[in-house]
Amino acid sequence: MRTFKNLKIIVLLIGVSCQVALFTPKTLAGSFGAEIFCAMRDGGNDHESSWEAAYSYIKRQKGGLFKVSPKQAAALIIETVVREKDTFSYCIQYLDQLYPDRELQRQLEEEAERKEQEALAAEERKREIEALIEEDESLSGEEFDRYSY
User: Fold this and answer.
1) Taking the chain, what is the end-to-end CA distance rounded to the nearest angstrom?
2) Are 130 and 111 in the same domain?
3) Which of 16, 31, 45, 74 could potentially form a cystine with 98 if both were Cys, beta carbons 3.0 to 4.6 Å apart?
């Protein structure tokens, strides 16, 4: 009977410590990641360098079995800024850059792909023209007599 009680207590302690270990680093990583992002942006750094610094910190501190995706890291930063808006009031203006315009990105990617295809087609046309020129040059060395049949 006593061992069953001890087993319950041990399982309870393991459960509580697992919860603390799994959820606390996420909260702390997101909070300090937001501090990094906002401090760098407020200091005059561009979005990319601020985002890379905050994201790399969140990835390192998060721990656990799974990696933190950029969307999750952005959500952690936004949650922290919104939850503590008195502390991060200067950072609210930068939050829209964490979720860029996906339609614009898609259009830019399609435009780049179209330009690449046009460049490939132009290169192919150039090769065809060069082949025709070479063929014409090889024929120009010979003389044809139209009336010799």
Assistant:
1) 117
2) yes
3) 74
